[in-house]
Amino acid sequence: MSTIIQPEKTIKIFDTTLRDGEQSPGCSMTLKEKIDMARQLEKMKVDIIEAGFAIASPGDFESVQTIAKELKETSVASLARALEKDIDTAWEAVKYAKRPRIHTFIATSDIHMQYKLKMDPEAVLERAVAMVKYAKRYCEDIEFSAEDATRSNPEFLHRIFEAVIKAGATTLNVPDTVGYTTPMEYSSLISGIREKVDGIHKVDISVHCHNDLGLAVANSLAAVKAGATQVECTVNGIGERAGNAALEEIAMGLATRYDYYGIKTGIDTTQIARSSKLLTAITGVSVQPNKAIVGANAFAHESGIHQHGMLANASTYEIMTPESVGLRTNAMVLGKHSGRHAFEDRLKTLGYELSKEEINRAFDDFKMLADKKKTVDDRDIEALLQDDVMNLEEHNKYKLQRFIINSGNTITSTATIALEIEGKVFEEVSAGDGPVDASYKAVEKMIKTGATLEDYKIQSITEAEDAQGEAVVKLKKGSRAVTGRGLSTDIIEASILAYLNAAQKLESISDEPPIRVIS
Ligand SMILES: CC(=O)SCCNC(=O)CCNC(=O)[C@H](O)C(C)(C)COP(=O)(O)OP(=O)(O)OC[C@H]1O[C@@H](n2cnc3c(N)ncnc32)[C@H](O)[C@@H]1OP(=O)(O)O
Ligand SMILES: CC(C)C(=O)C(=O)O
Ligand SMILES: [Mg+2]
């Protein structure tokens, strides 16, 4: 008995980052930026790039045409209203592409036909057919979109789709223009269209979803399950109003749940992170940290129980690997919800080998610090360990008595600092590049560490007007490096305290081998 091998089902990914995506307020791109983005989309292996709306402006025309000339493999489409002049212009722009496509559209819902187009349904149908035929004189690959399809009368939709297939359309797009539909409703709309058109010609059924109710990806995936063969989407989900379906979520949804959908895309998912970052760099619009797939927290774990599971086996809390979307690694973020397993793991990564007792002490200090700070980074842990191991409270040699700062944008900053050192009070004045530099120079005149300032960071660790500022400095002398911390509601005071804290540590380890050298 011979086995029949079923061909693998694949769907096309139609990227509209450069057209619908660019319709997001604040996401306009220059010609060069669009070309860079288009190259990256080709690298990610999207099937079709909608490079713009050629008639919209000379700049849009130039970018569609340049992208059509530049790309090697990918189909390049331009949007066009159902107007001859739009189609002529779209063709002039895409005709250089290896695989050109004209994408023409007209609205089919009563609301749009009556109030916007001021056309009756029969006139819309006639126009759609005439314009598909018109476009077909130029180009084999014609996509027709029934704008606002999900609020259109389904019978009218079926009629117009049948008519445009006969006129030569090769892809029928069913846009949820205003993000109105639901997964189940959209699914039955798509399977209804699929049944009707399958008897006529083989065409792609495309879906194009907006995110007004946060359902763009859910609706697109439901439609794919119901027989759609093309999904229109954008990188990071940018697009008109609340955006379009996010490409990365569609691609990873299908890849991760292949067991459920049984459908592949041609997307090289390892290019996802890069595409997302490139778009962010170009538009200056960042994705929110909890954004699926590409948000900063998408592969980050903060709570102890999760971190413990992750350390045992990443599949406990990750349904896809960071590598599969092109990230190097996941992140264990230490914060107030973290547990001992993750803390000990971080100590090992940082190169510390501590006794059980030292770890316990450090863990208690870490939990106290984590209560005050949003996240605890490696420098915090190092500072905390150095405090703990050297028991600095007992060696509190340098005490800040008072400080006076004179600073402004038209004068040189000066600092007067008084320190109490082993019971005696010293005072020095110094000028510097800003109040912190002036303070450090004044302090250095008194305590003479001879160290270099390797790093300096100031951040708020509590909120509101009385926020605590935390300064962290790293001082280096020879092969020894230490981190000092200072806390105050005054950021200059926090900075001076951090310097003194680091100086004390440096002094207390100067005759001993370093705990750990930070290069
Ligand atoms: C759902 C979507 O995303 S559709 C795409 C939306 N994107 C854009 O609109 C961005 C690019 N747009 C533009 O640059 C301009 O709107 C242009 C160049 C296309 C047209 O500009 P203008 O001629 O000044 O017209 P305007 O934008 O004010 O109005 C739209 C006109 O197109 C008509 N129209 C709208 N859709 C269609 C269509 N699919 N087919 C035919 N005519 C249409 C409207 O009825 C209106 O016609 P009117 O001028 O005779 O009243
Ligand atoms: C032009 C069409 C496809 C569109 O963007 C929409 O309906 O949202
Ligand atoms: Mg749209």
Question: Can I get a quick summary?
Answer:
The chain has 519 residues and is of the alpha/beta class.
What does this protein structure show overall?
By secondary structure, this protein is of the alpha/beta class. It has 3 domains: 12-283, TIM Barrel (Alpha-Beta Barrel), CATH 3.20.20; 300-376, no CATH class; 397-509, Double Stranded RNA Binding Domain, CATH 3.30.160.270. Helix content is 40%, strand content 20%. It is built from 17 helices and 16 strands. It has helices at residues 31-43, 58-70, 84-94, 110-117, 121-136, 154-167, 183-198, 216-225, 247-256, 258-261, 272-283, 304-312, 340-349, 356-372, 378-390, 435-447, 491-509; strands at residues 12-15, 48-52, 75-81, 99-107, 142-147, 171-176, 204-209, 230-233, 300-301, 331-332, 398-406, 413-421, 424-432, 452-460, 469-477, 480-488. The protein has an 8-stranded parallel barrel, surrounded by 8 helices. Helix 14 (356-372) packs across helix 15 (378-390). Mean pLDDT is 91; it is low at 389-394 and 512-519. It binds acetyl coenzyme *A, 3-methyl-2-oxobutanoic acid and magnesium ion. Residues 20, 23, 53, 55-56, 81-83, 105-106, 116-117, 147, 177, 240 line the site of acetyl coenzyme *A (ACO).
